[in-house]
Amino acid sequence: RARPVSFAAPFEVAKSDKPLTKPEAPPMPGLERHAAARDKARAAEASSKAIPRHARRPLAVRDPNVAVGFLSAARGEKRKTYDRAAAKRRQSHADDQRLAAAAAADVEASRLAALRQTPVACGGLQFVALTPPRA
How far is the C-alpha of 12 from the C-alpha of 8, rounded, in Å? Predict the structure, then answer.
C-alpha cells in the first residue's frame, strides 16, 4: 500500500556554497581528422586551379565505381576486352542453363506421356472408367 504524501509544506531546495561546474566538450578526435581532410582537399583543389585548364588532370578518386577514366588507352582497351569476354561468358552460361531446363522439361514430358500410356495396374495413369449400371 502506498504511503500518503503531505503537500502541506512546500518543497525547498537545499542551498549550497559550492561553485557551479562549467561544462566541457568531450574529446572528439574525429572532428580534427575531418578538418585535416577538408583542408587537404581544399589545398589540392586550389593547387589544381593554379594549373592552366588544358594541363589539369582530374583529382584522384578512391572509389573505382565513380572514376570511369583510365590512365592509359591501353588499360582502357584491356578492360573493354575483359568486359566483352565476361559478357560472352555470362550469356553462354545463361544459354546453357536455358538448354538444360528445356531438356529436363522434355524428359519430364516424355516420362508423363509414358505413364499415361501405362495401365493403373502396372503403376501408370491409364484407367478405364466404368459406366454405372442402368436401372
Answer: 12
pLDDT tens column, 70-81: 567 777 788 889
Q: What is the pLDDT of residues 102-116, one digit of tens each?
A: 999 999 999 999 988
In the chain, % of residues over pLDDT 70: 84
Q: Is 118 within 8 Å of 126 (Cβ atoms)?
A: yes
CA dihedral 38, 44, 46, 51 (to 10 degrees): -170
Q: Cα(39)–Cα(47) distance, rounded to whole angstroms? A: 12
Contact 119, 111 (CB under 8 A): no
Which residue is associated with the grid cell 531438356?
103
> pTM of the predicted model, to two decimals?
0.39
Phi, psi of 37 (to 5 degrees): -65, -40
| Phi-psi map region of 10: left, alpha, beta (phi>0 left; psi -120 to 50 alpha) | beta
Distance CA(101)–CA(108), nearest Å, equals 11
Residue 48 CB burial class (10 angstroms; 0-12, 13-18, ≥19) = middle
CA distance to 79, 95, 96, 114, per residue, from 109 (Å): 45, 21, 20, 9
